[in-house]
Amino acid sequence: MSRELTRRLIQLYVGLVLYGVSSAVLVRAGLGLEPWGVLHQGLAERTGMTIGVVSIIVGAAVLLLWIPARQRPGLGTVSNVVVIGIAMDGTLALVPDVHGLAGQIPLMLGGVALNGLATGLYIAARFGPGPRDGLMTGLHRLTGRSIRLVRTAIEVAVVAAGFVLGGSVGAGTVVYALAIGPLAQFFLRFFAVPSPGSRSTVVATHTQERAIIPR
To answer: pTM of this prediction?
Structure first.
């Protein structure tokens, strides 16, 4: 196994684990979740399943929508579905709820920052987008609408559905929406894995940024 492939695999799985940890941290902060987290929490409240299990089920269901969108999953896509949910439930089992704004606000900000770092890590590994990002790019291609518009429409619908089901929407949701783009862009460039030939690295990185930054 080459050093580049080893690094990419490490980045992929460290990034996915940290993404699950960051999502769990936002749950414990109690100030609002990222858009898909709102839906997962709402479904968890209604079904009695853990939020991590719900995340896995929703991810698998979204992956099925790739078929009509003619998207092809990669190792990172399938791993995204499973690893994030497991890491999330594992973190929630270890980290207790935090009460009081003096603890909640730093925890929320740390969760958002960690989410941006995790996003940069796993996407820069170039093993394929997550199921939700792939749905976005697939709908963009099928409808001809901008990525910004498609992503906004998806996440507004997801937040609304999650809120109706009982998911947590709050300051953390707003902070996440405003901060995740710049954070992901920074860490995506920081963790970019060089491809054979420096020019291809730049092109790949910019393509990944366009898929992630408009939120």
So the answer is: 0.88
